[in-house]
Amino acid sequence: MRTLHDLRDEMLAVAQGTRPVPPAHSVTDDGAVSGLLGVLTPANRALMHLIAAERPETVSRLAQLANRTQPNVSRALQDLAKHGLVRLVRDGMSIWPELVAAKIDVDLVRGTCRVVPMAVE
C-alpha cells in the first residue's frame, strides 16, 4: 500500500504537469459491472458523500458521521475500495478513507462502466 507521502507527491506531480493524470478505470466484464453497480447502494453513496464533504480522519469518525457501526462501515469501505471508488490510507495504526471516484459513466449500449477519478486540486 502506498503511503500518504507517496500519494501527496503523485498529486503534486499531476498538478504541476510533470506526471499525467491517471486514466479512468473501465469495467467491461458483466460480473464486474454488476458488482460495481451493486455496491452503489444509497447507504454507500451516502458514505462517499460524507468522505468528500467531511474528509473524516478515521474510519471510526466516518461511522459516527454516518450513524452506522464501525464494522459495518469498514465492510462497506472494503467493497467500495475493491471497485476503485475509495482508497483506504494507512499511517501506522490509523486508517482513513479517501474518495477516488468523481463519477461513474455507464454505457448502457456497450454494457460497460468507467470510473472517473477525482481531479487533483
UniProtKB/TrEMBL annotation:
<protein>
    <submittedName>
        <fullName>MarR family transcriptional regulator</fullName>
    </submittedName>
</protein>
<dbReference type="InterPro" id="IPR001845">
    <property type="entry name" value="HTH_ArsR_DNA-bd_dom"/>
</dbReference>
<feature type="domain" description="HTH arsR-type">
    <location>
        <begin position="35"/>
        <end position="110"/>
    </location>
</feature>
<dbReference type="Pfam" id="PF25212">
    <property type="entry name" value="HVO_A0114"/>
</dbReference>
<dbReference type="InterPro" id="IPR036388">
    <property type="entry name" value="WH-like_DNA-bd_sf"/>
</dbReference>
<dbReference type="InterPro" id="IPR011991">
    <property type="entry name" value="ArsR-like_HTH"/>
</dbReference>
<dbReference type="GO" id="GO:0003700">
    <property type="term" value="F:DNA-binding transcription factor activity"/>
</dbReference>
<dbReference type="InterPro" id="IPR036390">
    <property type="entry name" value="WH_DNA-bd_sf"/>
</dbReference>
